[in-house]
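Dear support,

We are seeing what looks like truncated structure output for some complexes. This example has six components. We would appreciate it if you could run it in full and send us the complete token output so we can diff it against ours.
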Amino acid sequence: MDQPPRDHNGSVPTKKKPQVAAAPARRRELLDTAAEVFAEQGYNATTVRTIADHAGMLAGSLYYHFDSKESMLEEILRTFLDELWDGYDTVLESELGPRETLEALVTESFREIDRHRAAVAIYQKESRQLAAQERFAFLAESQRKFERAWLSTLERGVAARVFRSDLDVRLTYRFVRDTVWVAASWYRPGGQHSPEEIARQYLSMVLDGIAVRA
Amino acid sequence: MDQPPRDHNGSVPTKKKPQVAAAPARRRELLDTAAEVFAEQGYNATTVRTIADHAGMLAGSLYYHFDSKESMLEEILRTFLDELWDGYDTVLESELGPRETLEALVTESFREIDRHRAAVAIYQKESRQLAAQERFAFLAESQRKFERAWLSTLERGVAARVFRSDLDVRLTYRFVRDTVWVAASWYRPGGQHSPEEIARQYLSMVLDGIAVRA
Amino acid sequence: MDQPPRDHNGSVPTKKKPQVAAAPARRRELLDTAAEVFAEQGYNATTVRTIADHAGMLAGSLYYHFDSKESMLEEILRTFLDELWDGYDTVLESELGPRETLEALVTESFREIDRHRAAVAIYQKESRQLAAQERFAFLAESQRKFERAWLSTLERGVAARVFRSDLDVRLTYRFVRDTVWVAASWYRPGGQHSPEEIARQYLSMVLDGIAVRA
Amino acid sequence: MDQPPRDHNGSVPTKKKPQVAAAPARRRELLDTAAEVFAEQGYNATTVRTIADHAGMLAGSLYYHFDSKESMLEEILRTFLDELWDGYDTVLESELGPRETLEALVTESFREIDRHRAAVAIYQKESRQLAAQERFAFLAESQRKFERAWLSTLERGVAARVFRSDLDVRLTYRFVRDTVWVAASWYRPGGQHSPEEIARQYLSMVLDGIAVRA
DNA sequence: TATGAATGAGGGTTCATTCAT
DNA sequence: TATGAATGAACCCTCATTCAT
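Here is the complete output from our reference environment:
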């Protein structure tokens, strides 16, 4: 979805707070808490006081660790997208066939949903609006890269006659993309299905359909 | 998704404002405007002043027509769901076979997306959070009804051997549901594809998959 | 001190609030109140709540009339500088001799102090820091114009042998400038001396000194 | 301007911190740093973090050395006023003639500006507001003493016919006072003029005026 | 019907200060 | 001596809402 600058954890290194180097553990904790709340209540509807409550501190104390509510959001999304692209890039560089690539990408996606459920949910709900802001331009950038990867995979597949040629490729792209990511809105980690199992079923539906074969 | 009480436009008829009778046309206009803005910016991020700006009036003036920002949202969603269920109920009462029912529901859904794009987008983005409020209990109610309709259709189809039996029905339900509605997030009315055409392609993918048959 | 763009009362016409056209009377009242408080407590030490208290309203209500505390400050200073330069320009265009020019400028200055005591006091105390901000660049611009006017007057006087040539002109400039404007810090309108009377005495000291002539 | 109690560096010796005894050198350094920042940015606009940054430490660490930001300010001003009055008292006890007294006081003032530029600038900008607080009552006290010294000198001069009798003495006092101290706002130590040189020029203007003698 | 002005309850953020280490 | 982390009060500002006109 994105290809942010390699190093990005400081985003806007304005002040000289220890925002970057020091105590990455606490930082992570707080970001996880924030992500959870953002995902549950929506970014706008979430107050920093709520985040602070969940973290067992006062609202002002968050500003020792972060520049702003927005910078928390940014870091949550950047961290997620970085990991996501680590996985995707590995797949894309493996030179698999189109069908195997699709399977690997979908499976990787469900693994990310499993690991970053909150971040994915936030991404789903907020990215469209956010992408308009310069600060979140990396979201749009990621989306473009994402689209290129999928479209080329689908086109390769059509050329190789493993995917149907009678379908509009862009529609198919959206279909597959949405099909995967919306899962974040209902997926609960630790449920009865592992990410791989869910991926398998989704792939089965996407590839072979839900109708019984004639 | 829901079947609210027949009359629902005032929800809480406390005050004496003529919120109901007078000039239903202007009312509709304003709601359409509001829906457009809500869809574009998100409900929370939208200020009543923005709505008023788009409508060419001052923020306070909206309160002649509506009780509150929330009541505008409620009416937008109720109106949409009412129409949606009009269509769905017609389908469900037609006693079609499971596959034909699924096709009809999906087609009807894309028609609603075409007609109520803004409302659908709002619904997609906000319904989860809203459903927790008593005022928006009708959203949860609608969702339950929606789920029942789909699940029973799918189960009928599995029993009739027109849908695959090796798939988790709930997963399949979510798959189909999401697959359809997320389209509202990118669909633009007046584009090159008619709702029926999009429905046909979606159905083709959902039913038969995107892979080439062996 | 400044030569702002001819029209400047909107400074940053971001939103479409009636900040500009409507109700200039109330606006003036509020700005006068604000100026008084800024002058007395200092800009930074003044809270918008204090201003609102003095105006008999709530803090938030000020934002119906103004964009921000800073925009109030800006408008106060712009209005003052505009009037000041109206007076100065009239003097400078009159082609008086250097001594008469100096007398007229000083007199005009005391009149402005009389009319805009609060604004002058604010200007004295805050302009140095403010001028660094882009928004208040007009302060620096005014200062440059002010300096040019004074320096050229002094130089003309030296050339015409009405001012002493053994003094450093820049030092003299600062001497005269400060001497006049600091008066705003103790001047109270409605006191026993009229601005013209004070100007006369200042001029007497500046021109002829306080020592008895040999 | 003031004559504070002989010992004044702790003002309120409440806690047990070694604020007084330990390492007076470091203390001085920190106060000089703070004074510089206060002078440049204004007391209110200066955060303790900014001071700490300039001193190469963290904000909290300053509290090992000082009770509060305010106590730093107090000590800066007290130290300055103490030295100033050392000089003034020496002059005043010398029983010089009125003109020579005036010359000596002005010269001494420019020497203090040279030595304590930052403190003087702070004094100029903040003393009026500060003097209202009990803690800074010494500022008002100093000002009174200052005024007495100058007024009596001027009156002595008028009586001795070395100063003009046609001028309002209080106005003249303010004129001379302001004339001297505002210099702190633009004076930069190490510039091309020595304090004594500047004093000489100022005195020349104040005593004999800037106009060419008839 | 709509305006203009105000309310009042927060919301994000800053900052002097504290304190255990 | 200094750090790192947190506190808590206050601050500027936003915004849904009200109401007299």
